[in-house]
Amino acid sequence: MTPIRPATPADVPQLHELIRELANFERAPDAVVSTPDDLHSALFGGDHTPHGSPAAYAFVVDNPDDAPGLAAMAIYVLNYSTWLGKYGIYLEDLYVRPQFRGRGFGRALLATLAREAVDRGYGRVEWSVLDWNTPAWDFYRTQGAEAMTEWTVHRVSGAALTALAQPATDTTSIASGR
């Protein structure tokens, strides 16, 4: 099997291409507004990351057919559980190009993340799956994953994020607890 390795700066264009392929698969081809430069900054540090440090991490699988390019990727960030008192891994993207599916790359990437979590003393690995993506649900179940049915993801973005970031207009009710 082709070894899994941490992503390098040279992988960024291919990683960005995989992200676009994943968005297309997830029926949201126009949702990707990030650029390769944004991804490079997130993975290897830059002006918009905490203290210039990486904010995200990635493992990749090279094309096993001796052709240039990547066959698969896993991009993740760290999160923190106040209940566990430990960091965890949040898997943002796991993608295996269609022509490489069924070769064990998805499982190998998940196992790599699990090893990363165990080796570093993290408490869990978690991710989100689209409701309609039955093949992914089935695959993750075979890996021992449990759906967190009592938890629903909430998101604030775009104009709502900008509005929420504005100072409250009536700070006296906030300060007085009313």
Describe this protein's structure.
This protein has 178 residues and is of the alpha+beta class. The protein has one domain (4-151): Gcn5-related N-acetyltransferase (GNAT) (Aminopeptidase, 3-Layer(aba) Sandwich). Helix content is 34%, strand content 20%. The protein has 6 helices and 5 strands. The protein has helices at 12-25, 36-44, 105-120, 134-142, 158-165, 171-175; strands spanning 4-6, 57-62, 70-81, 86-96, 125-127. It has a 5-stranded mixed β-sheet, with helices on both faces. Helix 1 crosses helix 2 (36-44). The chain is globular, with a radius of gyration of 19 Å. The mean pLDDT is 90.
Short description:
The protein is an alpha+beta fold and 178 residues long. The protein has helices at residues 12-25, 36-44, 105-120, 134-142, 158-165, 171-175, and strands at residues 4-6, 57-62, 70-81, 86-96, 125-127.
Biggest sheet, spatial arrangement of strands: 1-2-3-4-5
CATH architecture: 3-Layer(aba) Sandwich
The residue-averaged pLDDT reads 90
CATH class: Alpha Beta
Q: What distance lies between the first and last C-alpha atoms, to the nearest angstrom?
A: 61 Å
The helix/strand series, from N terminus to C terminus, equals: EHHEEEHEHHH
**Number of beta strands:** 5
The radius of gyration over CA amounts to: 19 Å
CATH superfamily: Gcn5-related N-acetyltransferase (GNAT)
